[in-house]
Structure formats: C-alpha cells, structure tokens
Design goal:
The complex is a heterodimer of chains A (about 290) and B (about 290).
Chain A (H helix, E strand, L loop, with lengths): L1 H29 L6 H18 L4 H24 L9 H22 L13 E4 L2 E4 H23 L1 H11 L1 H6 L4 H27 L5 H16 L4 H21 L5 H15 L15
Antiparallel strand pairs in A: 1-2
Helix pairs in contact in A: 1-5, 1-6, 1-8, 1-9, 1-10, 2-3, 2-4, 2-8, 2-9, 3-8, 5-6, 5-8, 6-8, 9-10, 9-11, 10-11
Chain B lengths: L1 H17 L7 H19 L3 H23 L4 H21 L1 H4 L12 E2 L2 E2 L3 H24 L1 H11 L1 H6 L4 H27 L9 H14 L5 H19 L4 H22 L21
Antiparallel strand pairs in B: 1-2
Helix pairs in contact in B: 1-6, 1-9, 1-10, 1-11, 2-3, 2-9, 3-9, 6-7, 6-9, 7-9, 10-11, 10-12, 11-12
Classes of the chains: A mainly alpha (about 290), B mainly alpha (about 290).
Chain lengths: ~290, ~290
C-alpha cells in the first residue's frame, strides 16, 4: 500500500517540481516573486483545452500552440509589468503587481470558460502494473516528462552559454551588470523558460484531472513551498523539493485524509522559513546577506 | 459593511502603511475574531459585548505569535510566512469540524443585545459599526500623531538608522502587529452577528487580497487613505448592480476591476489616492538587497 502512495506522490510531485523549477529560475534571475506564474499555468491548461477540444488541429499542434502562447504570456508580463519597475524598489511592489495580474487573468478565463471544472480527456486511463504498484499512463508520462525536463534544464544551466548567463545574473546581479552581461536577455530567458516549465506542468495536470480557473493558484502555492523547502538559491533544489512535497502530501493522505494536505504543506513552509530559511539543500547564508 | 472594512483597512494600514510590511494574513485575524465571538455567543450563550474582549485578546495573542518569527524575515520571506499562516489557519477553520463545523459554517448567530435593547436592524448595526470604527479611527489617529507612529515610519524607511538611534525595532513591530490584530478582531466580531452566518470562505486568502486592495487604492501611511479606499472599493459592486450585469459574471468582472486598479495604482500613483507613503519608494542603499 505504501508504495502506491509513494508513487502517486512522486507523480504529483513531478508537477510541483516543474512549476517550482520555473518559479525558481524567475525568482533568482529577476527577484520577482511571480505569483502570476499561476495565471500562466491556468492559461496554458485552458489554451490546450481550447485548441484540443474546440478546434480539430490534433493533439500535438494544440500542445505546441498552447505552450508557445503561455510562454509569450509570461514574457509579456515581464516586459509590461515587472521590467519597468525601478531597481531597488521595495519588494512589496512586484508582489502586489503580480497578484493584480493573476487576479485579472484568472477572472478573464473564468468569464470566458465559466467557473466549473472542464474535462480535457474523458474516459478511463490505461494502467500498468509494476510489482505491487499500479501506474496510469498519464502518471508515467508525467514522471518521464519531469525526468527529461529536469535533466535538460540541469545540462543547459551547467554547460550552455545562456545557462551560464542565467547563473551569473542570479548569483550576483550587480557584478553581472558591471561585467557587461546582458541582463535583459537573462530576464527574457528566465521568464520564457520558467513559463514553459509551468505550462508543461499545467498541460500534464489538465490531462489527468481536468481544469478549473483556480488551479493555478494552488499549483503556484505548492511550487512556492517546494522552492523554499528545497532551497531558494539552488535551481535543482526547487525540483527536488517539489517531488519531496508530493510524496509528503501523499503520505499525509494515506495516514489521515486529504483534508489535511494543505495544512501540512503550509506548516512545512512555516517551519522551514523559521528554522532553515535557506532550505534543505541551500547553502548556509543568512537571507539578509543575499 | 463599510465600517467593518474600514476597520480592517485601518488595521492593515498600520502594517503596510506604517511599517511597510505586506501581510497576507489579515483575514486570519478577521476570521479568528469572528469565530471566537460567534462560538462564545452560541456555545456559552454569552452577550455579544462580553465576547469582544475575548476576540480582541485572542487575536492579539495570535498576532504576537505571528509577529515574533516574522521579525527575522524580510520582504518576500515575511510575506511568505504570513501566506503560510493564512493558509494554515484557513485549513484549520475548514477541517476542525468539531469546533468550527468546517465548510458548513456557523449558522444562527444571535444579534447583539445591550441592556435589553436588541441590535438587529441594518441601521442599528450601522450605528454600532460607526461607534466601533470611530474608536478604531481614534486609536489610529493617536498612533499617527504620536512618537510611536513616527518611530514605525522611521523603521519602515530605514530600519538600521532607527535601531542605531536606540529604537527597539522588534518591540515596535510586535506592538503594531498586536494593535492591528486587535482592531481586525473587533471587525470580525462585528461581521458575525451582522450576516448571522460565517463559514471559512469568508476568511480565505481572497479576503486578505481584498483588504490589501482597499488600502493600496485608497492610500497608505495616513488615515484618509483607508477611508476613501473602503468607500470606492465597496462602491464598485453597487455600480455593477446598477448596470444590471448578471450575477455570475459580476463577481468575475468585479475581481478584474480590482486587479486592474491594483496594477494601475502601483504604476501611476503608488501612494494611493489620498495616501502619503509611496509603496514604490526606493529603499536606502543599506536596506537594499
């Protein structure tokens, strides 16, 4: 029994991990706490729904189109709302702005598609039995997409020119600027790649459980917890934190009931913030010294 | 309604306007105040006016508990801690069914009574609300004019400097939190008999956003801001009703308007309509991260 819950948790955690990785990229490069990430997430799911169910262009083009538009949305948010804010502004301003963007987009979606849950993929899923564990096809896809994207991101960050740029800017923004690195390009990269990851997670989640306009906030809150839990300054930690959070939530469901999931999630956030603000895998550094 | 949100706005203003701290947990104080008062009235049959001190005291203790760990955290992390707290308490309201009746909410909350005189009509509630909000305004006015208020602003603008002048920043922050918690608790205690029914969704994260919207739009750092903000924000649903937009869409349109107002105000007039503290103020170089 426990293995089934762990596997379910791993698959749910894979989605948290993708979303958290995107959030972490954006946060580290731009210092924006991007709650509107949730709006990108919701938009991606609804765009997929729009293209896949309302037109007849086929599944693959619909997915590509949804991902592209969601990435564009994320980039536009940065261009029009975050980038114009002056440097050194109190962090309160981008945070409230991102809430504003989130509220507007999600309610536009709710106006257009209604507040109810929409189903993307009706019917019973094919399942596989691996030892004592039953895995649905979608869960298998979720896990493999996560593994692929995680590896790809790690390799890109480590070895590519753009990855080095992102790491440099997130490590020390002022120094990177002084050395003449292109900060604008780093922002663009972070927002597009980060939004892409969130959009991928959203599409996978929509395939499994359908969508409602408020799915994005729940996903972003989980991603925030995952990012802080894993460690803010380490990119990979956000993804690992997401997977761990998924497993913990699943085990909580096993031991008590699903009702206490969010209580446990946020209790973890509080405990980590108070006792280990650098996160599980974070370097020992006081937050004030960033 | 107006008086209740006015009190919430005034109370959050103490944190956001005077201390520059963004708290997403304001609906927690509001909710805990409402639940304490409603439960004492229903379970123990207490008089509304005797439940008020318990509500206020309960929330002040809670504010103290939130404020202490939050002092170590800055900006984003402070906001996150309050967010965690908000979601945690909401989950407790929702799931601790033996006390709060969870999603079913608490029904049949009796009207306040004083010396055999029953407050049940809307105008009577207005008078009662007016008395409470006048008291809240009085407290905030005192704070605004006192050295205490000025010290809060000094800490907001440059904490290091305030500390170097011998001000105990932690003590001031905690006091502001406790006062804000107390005021929000009274607002919560008011809403319970007014709508005679409370459930956890009245005190969700959206409600915290709503209170933030009120003071970002009205203005931060003084008293006029929350007043005009509450007035304008509560006017919007009435205008929508006047335009006879169907109810289902009206809720979403209202939210869109609030969101747009938030973005636009922060961009064009960050101190709010009548406020005096610009949220976009550039921090002193020492306080920048």
């Amino acid at each position: 029994m426990i293995w089934q819950y762990i596997v379910n948790g791993l698959c749910a955690g894979a989605l948290f991990g993708l979303t958290a990785l995107g959030l972490s990229l954006i946060y580290n490069v731009t210092n924006v706490f991007h709650f509107a990430h949730g709006a990108v997430y919701t938009s991606a799911a609804y765009l997929l729904f729009l293209f896949a169910c309302k037109t007849s262009i086929g599944a693959a083009p619909a997915t590509i189109l949804a991902l592209t538009l969601a990435i564009l949305l994320g980039v536009l948010m940065d261009r029009f709302f975050y980038a114009p804010l002056p440097a050194g502004v109190r962090r309160t301003v981008p945070i409230i702005t991102s809430f504003g963007i989130y509220i507007v987009i999600v309610n536009l979606i709710a106006l257009g598609f209604g507040n109810d849950t929409q189903i993307l993929h009706p019917g019973v899923e094919k399942t596989f039995e691996i030892g004592p564990v039953i895995v649905t096809r979608i869960q298998a896809i979720q896990a493999s997409v996560f593994a692929l994207l995680f590896l790809l991101t790690a390799l890109l960050l480590k070895f590519s020119r753009y990855g080095r740029l992102i790491r440099a800017v997130s490590d020390n923004r002022k120094l990177a600027e002084a050395l003449g690195l292109d900060i604008k390009k780093a922002r663009l990269l972070a927002f597009s790649y980060g939004s892409g990851l969130a959009a991928a997670a959203a599409c996978l989640s929509a395939l499994e459980t359908g969508m409602d306009p408020y799915m994005g906030l729940a996903a972003t809150l989980s991603a925030v917890v995952a990012m802080i839990f894993g460690g803010v300054r380490v990119f990979a930690a956000a993804a690992v934190g997401g997977v761990m959070l998924g497993v913990i939530q699943s085990l909580v469901t096993w031991q008590t009931s699903a009702r206490w999931q969010s209580a446990v999630t946020f209790a973890i956030l509080l405990v980590v913030l108070i006792f280990r603000p650098q996160g599980l895998f974070g370097a020992k550094k006081r937050l004030e010294e960033q | 309604m107006f008086e209740i949100y006015l009190m919430l706005g005034l109370s959050l203003n103490l944190l956001l306007g005077y201390l520059g701290l963004l708290s997403l947990a304001h609906a927690v104080f509001y909710g805990v105040g409402a639940y304490i008062s409603a439960l004492l009235m229903i379970r123990l049959g207490m008089n509304f006016f005797f439940t008020l001190p318990f509500s206020a005291l309960g929330c002040m203790v809670l504010a103290l508990i939130i404020a202490l760990p939050s002092l170590r955290l800055k900006d984003d992390y402070f906001m996150l801690a309050t967010l965690a707290f908000q979601s945690l308490v909401f989950s407790i309201f929702y799931n601790w069914t033996s006390v709060t009746r969870g999603p079913y909410g608490i029904t049949g909350i009796p009207s306040p009574q004083l010396f055999g005189y029953k407050v049940s009509e809307i105008w009577q509630f207005c008078v009662l609300g007016f008395i409470f909000s006048a008291a809240a305004i009085y407290v905030c006015k005192k704070i605004h004019a006192s050295p205490f208020g000025r010290t809060l602003k000094a800490i907001r603008d440059d904490e290091l400097l305030a500390v170097s002048l011998g001000k105990n920043a932690a003590k001031f922050k905690v006091s502001a939190f406790v006062i804000a918690g107390g005021i929000a608790a009274i607002a919560g205690a008011m809403i319970a008999p007014y709508i005679s029914y409370i459930d956890p969704t009245c005190f969700a994260l959206d409600e915290s956003f709503f209170i933030i919207t009120i003071i970002v739009i009205g203005g931060t750092g003084n008293l006029k801001g929350p007043v005009i903000g509450t007035f304008l924000i509560l006017l919007i649903p009435e205008i929508l009703r006047f335009l006879s937009i169907p109810d289902a869409a009206a809720a979403n349109i209202r939210q869109i308007i609030y969101g747009l107002l938030l973005i636009l105000m922060l961009r064009l007039r960050p101190q709010g309509i009548l406020g005096e503290y610009g949220l976009n103020k550039i921090l002193s170089p020492y306080a920048q991260t």
